[in-house]
Automatic annotation (TrEMBL), chain A:
One of its GO terms (cellular component) is clathrin adaptor complex. It comes from Crepidotus variabilis. SUPFAM superfamilies: Second domain of Mu2 adaptin subunit (ap50) of ap2 adaptor (SSF49447), SNARE-like (SSF64356). It is a peripheral membrane protein. The keyword Protein transport applies. It is found in: Cell membrane; Membrane, Coated pit. GO terms for biological process: endocytosis; intracellular protein transport. CDD domains: AP-2_Mu2_Cterm, AP2_Mu_N. This is Mu homology domain-containing protein. Keywords: Cell membrane, Coated pit, Endocytosis, Membrane, Protein transport, Transport. Residues 169-423 form the MHD domain. Belongs to the adaptor complexes medium subunit family. It holds the Pfam family Clat_adaptor_s.
From TrEMBL, chain B:
Pfam families: Adaptin_N (PF01602). Belongs to the adaptor complexes large subunit family. GO terms for cellular component: endomembrane system; membrane coat. Residues 708-738 are annotated as: Disordered. InterPro entries: AP_beta (IPR026739), AP_complex_bsu_1_2_4 (IPR016342), ARM-like (IPR011989), ARM-type_fold (IPR016024), Clathrin/coatomer_adapt-like_N (IPR002553). This is AP complex subunit beta. It is found in: Endomembrane system. The keyword Cell membrane does not apply.
Amino acid sequence: MISAFFIFNQKGEVLISRLYRTDFKRSIADVFRIQVVSNSDVRSPIITLGSTSFFHVRINNLYVVAVTKTNANAALVFEFCYRFISICKAYFGKVDEEAVKNNFVVIYELIDEINDFGYPQNSEIDTLKTYITTESIVSTNIAAEESSKITTQATGAISWRRADVRYKKNEAFVDVIENVNLSMSAKGNVLRADVDGHIQMRAYLTGTPECKFGLNDKLVIDKNDKGQSDAVELDDCRFHQCVSLAEFDADRTISFVPPDGEFELMRYRSTSNVKLPLRVIPSVTEVGTTQVQYTVIVKANFNNKLSATDVVIRIPTPLNTTTTECKAPTGKAKYVPAENVIIWKIARLQGGAECSIRATADLTRTTTRQVWARPPIDVDFQVLMFTASGLIVRFLKVFEKSNYQSVKWVRYLTKASGNYQIRF
Amino acid sequence: MSIRAPRKGENYELSVDLNSEYREKRKDAIKRTIASMTVGKDVSGLFPDVLKNMQTDDLEQKKLVYLYLMNYAKTQPELVILAVNTFVKDTDDPNPLVRALAIRTMGCLRAEKIIDYLCDPLQKCLKDENPYVRKTAALCVAKLYDLKPDLVLDNGFLDQLLEMIADSNPMVVANTVAALTDIHVSAIGSGASSEDSGYFTITTSILNKLLIALNECSEWGRVAILNALARYQAHDEKESEHICERVVPQFQHANGAVVLAAVKVIMIHMRKVHREEMTRQLVRKMAPPLVTLLSSPPEVQWVALRNINLLLQKRPDILQNEMRVFFCKYNDPLYVKVEKVDIMVRLASENNVDALLSELKEYASEVDVDFVRKSIKAIGQTAVKIDAAAERCVNVLLELINTRVSYVVQEAVVVMKDIFRKYPKTYEGVIPILCSNLDELDEPEAKASLIWIIGEYANTIDNAADLLGIFVDSFTEEAYPVQLQTLTAVVKLFLIKPDSSQAIVQRILNTATKDCDSPDVRDRAYIYWRLLSMDPAAAKAVVLAHRPPISIPRTTVAPSLLEELLGEVGTLASVYHKPSETFIGKGRIGADAVRNRAELGDDQLSAQKALQTVAAGQQAENLLDFDDASTIEGQPSGLAATGILSQTPAAANIIAGTSTNPLDDLVSIFGGGDSGSSGGLAPAPMSFGGGGFGGMGQFGAGAPGALGTAGLSNMPPTPATAKPNMHPEQQEDLLGLF
């Protein structure tokens, strides 16, 4: 139960303030400013002062804050804050101080719609957009019937879909996007490799279609025909609320009535047999106390018809680095002193290819002997038409009363951003 | 009485624009008014001007005016009455959005005058044909209850809500459940009803309706319904199983709050499930969704981790093979990392200890001091937990000590002390290395630990007297815990090597009794002195007594509290690992409340607890029989322990969370000897320490009852009950002479 909701900018100025309940005065915002915004050492996203608890989430220099005086459901409060952020993204394209200031009227409308008396209400972006718009609506313009329809949808069993969707061409796009997380030890052992995947779908389908979705999920395949080896073991799946969970629980079929347009159908996690698309072999030697020498080799471990794009390798340097020298035959490398890293960018890396960089970092002498924490090397990349988990979409069937033909498209993308780490 | 704005300034301009003849200009002025309101400027003076703009077809403008009204209705109660007409008219509007908006806003106005006009429209809206209006009206009943409970009861709104649980629309059901729960909770809070005969008792027929609605309603609605399911008292095992089966599919929901709420329901109803196979299946299904929560945003992750920590205390087998997923990423926020390390230690076993140690070693070289310390502590805990890995842990610690980074060395020394406690006489080879770092230590805890080690192994350390001499020289400048340890260590040294250390022991007893301003240190010195001069053999038996081995406690909270917290998975209480009374409303818990809770609590648990306490009490009494000195020794270290605990906020949380329990015991055993102090452990030793010196003369005369009954009744439970509950405290206790 959320008693109050605020948005602060980085200076601690209140941009949005809404008290859902009366257990606070507006001045509670000052308490947050003093205790959190102007405190440089905040070590917890929840702060309880007296009997008041502040939950905060930071995004682009904004603080999204929910306040409560009860033993609130912490998971729900944070999920709500993040939902608010994603709604803002959908409405304004970005979430920052400027966007909030320019759209505060809509934001007030939104936070009153998605939360009543501290209890979160319908927060489906698609539905919200039908009756909370950036242009003002004059109530006479919307016929009462129209809003009846909207409200029925907002509260109905299929709150995410209008009934009267029409398309000339019925299409569905499925994007399988996998984020690879890797921690590799200095000795080259994989400490942890897993895949956070999500399946993004864009459905442009007429009427109220019933979809069935099939993956090479090991549990399903093993049951039907034994002996196939390309099945993938999914550790866990989570679904958009349109998917019937009871059905999935019973026999692992994924069936749903999709929202119109883009949505995230499911998330999954896989930890077994993760294929690592890039292998990074660093060798870093500290020469005395004044120099560090690097040789980093990157190998592309996948079919040579595919290629990795936007490869960015961030090689940390000690804090007291003065100058660096980089020799990269492939791609471009440069030293970014502000972040203490050498950034090596390769626009395209063909499957099976291998490239390397040599670099040295010169250090100043320091009076105190500082230990260099040696943060891990971090790699970002994208590989199209490749899944690290080996997941394949086997089918997507669409059933609708009118029995139309529909076209389906599937794309695969494996990427890493910020969590593909190699220690050295 | 309204205050008119002066004829100049911002508010005046706004007021002019609000009364403009052009629609756009008026609307713009309303927006500017709201903007001023947001930044905290007082625009209440514009109330009548804003109110004039309420009658409009423009929905957006209407919402803005309503927003203004909600903020200032309380300050302008006389003027609000002017708005009532429009509101009532709006609740009859053909547009359901307008109807819902009106009823939603009326509930938020909180002005006495308007409430009387609320009941009729509310009655109507609860029966509206449109579900959107009904779901808004349902919450409005809770708003009304918050303002004037009598009105809700008199108008029969409660019965109406109870009927609405059978509504055909799942969203209406969800909001009805939320409203009823809200009313139920605040009724209990204000004492209008009790938990047993509350306004929202979930019967079997309600249960079935909820289970049906659960699969259809929105994510937030599911959380509300799951919360209600958690409160249901199942009649038999079959019913519990049925609920579990129906709730399990929710584990696959995309919203973390739904997953955790489902975990809560399962944990509660699983208590009644006795079928082994069923329990195992439920636990197995619970693991993957919990792990998946780790790929949520960091804040949600943290909430999940705190809860996983609790779940593991109840069911250590839940994530047996999943330790690797808890490995910290370099860019995880600190609060997530610290929690992950905690969980990793919980999951440590002989199979994965190597991977764990290499991770912890890695973390110990990171930048953040707190996290580094935490990792080193974790290495020590692993050593104590897994016998087979102790040697490897010690080797890692030695490597870390070799880095010579001050805080690393200090923490490693503290940790080594615990390893010596667990494996006495095993790693004596390490002692010279530790002693060589003597100069690096500047924190009391590290110093105290090293001194303890020196005293304990005085017979194998050749220059023990020299090393202790350093601390004796600076005795008066040291912190009290260091002084206490120095005192004890020197006495140990004297008992082991009486010939060579006569001088040093004389010196320290002199200094401690004459120049020390801490009564605890002084008392302990007197006791030692008398022991040594009267009966050296007894002194040996006391000071060099065999110490019970230490172990890592499986739980950080008391069993009864753990059960309570598992019933609150996902909430703030579960994040803090504290009962909710400690941080919400009503100030601190009184002794009465604690006593009531102990009486109301699970019979079995309290019986168990009572038994534990009696056993512990007997132990303490045995020690008393033996010699009063030993209990007194325990006392200062108890004080030291609380002192140290309150320094770190995290530890303070732990102690606050558990401190009610020793008090429970106190109350139940001694029939309220000294139940006025609800603050926890601190008061007991304090009161004793204060009176300690005065009683000393009597005590020296050998009167066993010299401490007085009040002191006694305070004393035994303090160390005894602390043992099963608190890890850090336990070690501190054992560090002493106990």
